[in-house]
Design a protein that fits this description.
- It is a single chain.
- Strand 6, helix 4 and strand 7 form a beta-alpha-beta unit.
- The chain is of the alpha/beta class and about 270 residues long.
- The chain has one domain: NAD(P)-binding Rossmann-like Domain (Rossmann fold, 3-Layer(aba) Sandwich), CATH 3.40.50.720.
- The mean pLDDT is about 95.
- An eight-stranded mixed β-sheet has the order 3-4-2-1-5-6-7-8, with helices on both faces.
- The termini are far apart.
- About 45% of the residues lie in helices and about 15% in strands.
- It binds nicotinamide-adenine-dinucleotide.
């Protein structure tokens, strides 16, 4: 597709499916060597003329697993230029139903994971004098769906981590940014739609929450990640970039404020 990442080595956590998979394929399409680390999936390698996509086992919550994963990437490729912290989980529970174990698990995957990955990858980026870290946060760090207390707290933490890494690692030539997806069609939230008794109704209503009229797809998140990972964003660091079809830019009004009412309002001068 292009050669924006020719000669670069990229790591994508949670890249076995969904948004992570789309990111891994997008970076590989720009000629990066991409190593996907995931708790699920089998070790594989696929090679095209200019790029390589490799899968290695990784549990981002486990310090030893992270250390050994980074060592394997370095032994094989000698450097890491791009780190995409994508692995994440969500639990839909009210504060009363949520257990301490649910909370700890969510924090471990969504927040401890990106911290551990950055901790072990940053020294290697510092050694080469450059690097780009792209975290996958969420619009739920700004606005929250019901039953997502722990998820929102973990993603707000990712945004804080992004600011800290951008400030601390900037002098070493390392940039850190976060892409904040809105509602993206993946396994993570597909059950939400599939369990509803009227699937077409919920799909339509979800689309209408977005000024662009639809939910997003993983490739659209991957395109934003590519930009932040590439030299095209060389002066951008410490930013949270929403990819959400303007959902979080729209203030809700009661549905009774329909077209007829709006027409009356437009004649009003106060
Ligand atoms: N789908 C959305 O609407 C949406 C919206 C906002 C943010 N996000 C974020 O995007 C990221 C990807 O979400 P998705 O929808 O593709 O989810 P997904 O469930 O389809 O994929 C998540 C991947 O992470 C892997 N993973 C889970 N725990 C792991 C661990 N401990 N170590 C390594 N890998 C692990 C899973 O095996 C899976 O392959 C997540 O961080 C999620 O919070 C998603």
């Amino acid at each position: 597709m292009g050669n924006k990442l020719s000669g670069k080595v990229a790591v994508v956590t949670g890249g076995n499916r969904g948004i992570g998979r789309a990111i891994a394929e997008r970076l590989a399409a720009e000629e990066a060597v991409v190593v996907v680390g995931d708790v699920s999936g089998e070790p594989t390698t696929s090679k095209s003329s200019a790029s390589e996509l490799i899968f290695l086992q990784l549990d981002v919550t486990n310090q030893e697993s992270v250390r050994s994963f980074v060592d394997k990437v370095l032994q094989r490729f000698g450097k890491i230029d791009i780190l995409v912290n994508n692995a994440g989980i969500v639990v839909h529970k009210s504060i009363d139903e949520q257990t301490v174990e649910d909370w700890d698990r969510m924090m471990a995957v969504n927040l401890r994971g990106p911290f551990l990955m950055a901790k072990y990858v940053a020294p290697e980026m510092r050694r080469t004098g450059s690097g780009a870290i792209v975290n996958i946060g969420s619009v739920e760090a700004f606005m929250v769906n019901p039953w997502h207390t722990a998820y929102a707290a973990s993603k707000a933490g990712v945004h804080g981590l992004t600011l800290g890494l951008a400030v601390d690692l900037g002098p070493d030539g390392i940039r850190c940014n976060t892409v904040c997806p809105g509602w993206i069609d993946t396994d993570l939230n597909r059950a939400y739609v599939e369990m509803h008794p009227d699937r077409s109704l919920i799909e339509r209503e979800l689309g209408q929450l977005h000024p662009v009229g639809r939910i997003g797809c993983p490739k659209e998140v991957a395109n934003a990640v590519l930009w932040l990972a590439s030299e095209e964003s060389s002066f951008v660091s410490g930013e949270m970039i929403a990819v959400d079809g303007a959902r979080t830019r729209k203030i809700s009004l009661p549905p009774i404020l329909d077209e007829e009412y709006r027409a009356k309002l437009s004649k009003l001068t106060v």
